Amino acid sequence: MPVRSKHLIFQLRWLLLFCNIWLGMSANLFALPIKTAILNSEEQVVGQALVYIDYVELQDMDGTAKGRLGFVNIKGGFQLFVVSDDGKQSLVGSAKNRRLYDKEGELLAHYDWTTFWSYVYAPDGTKIGEAKCIAFRGICSAGIASYLTGLLDQ
After folding, report:
1. I want to staple 113 with a disulfide (CB 3.0 to 4.6 A). Which of 107, 117, 129, 137 is the partner?
2. What is the reported pTM?
3. Pairing of strands 91-96, 107-113
């Protein structure tokens, strides 16, 4: 019996060591957020989006936070809202049906996506910009639109 308990303790030590190593490394193994560059109509990098499953953080090129776009569950339905990162977390707009609106309900942009790219267009159809969104394309596109229209600067 004593030999068996020593063997069990030895195995438990290895298991504990393995778990500690795995937990320490696992934070670096996750793929989120997905970082993507925001391009203007001349295809110049103007900002960066950090894309998560249910929200997008939008930043200037220097890493300064501009705002966020995320899902909110209201009465069993989901809506997309845009919040500026002005210290007060002010609601500045919303997105619905591939359209971006300011808080007064005025149409600012249309957005759409393909397998890899998201595109943003002004209400008159001129291209405002694009970004490579490889996952969570709907929320990524809406976030890109809120950045490119200047909605977060209000």
Report:
1. 137
2. 0.78
3. unpaired
Q: What is the CA radius of gyration of the chain?
A: 22
Is the CB of residue 93 less than 8 Å from the CB of residue 74? no
Q: Which has more confidence, 2 or 119?
A: 119
Q: Give the residue ranges of DSSP H helices in the chain.
A: 2-29, 137-148
> What does the alpha-carbon distance between residue 21 and residue 119 come to, in Å, rounded to a whole number?
42
Among candidate residues 114, 137, 110, the one with its CA nearest the CA of residue 126: 110
pLDDT tens sequence across 4-60: 666 667 676 766 655 556 565 555 556 789 999 999 999 999 999 999 998 999 999
Domain boundaries, the chain: 1-30, 34-153
Residues 6+ apart with CB under 8 A from 51: 32, 33, 34, 35, 36, 133, 135, 136, 139, 140, 143
DSSP E strand stretches across 8-152: 34-40, 45-51, 55-60, 65-74, 77-84, 91-96, 99-102, 107-113, 117-121, 127-132
Cβ(30)–Cβ(23) under 8 Å? Answer: no
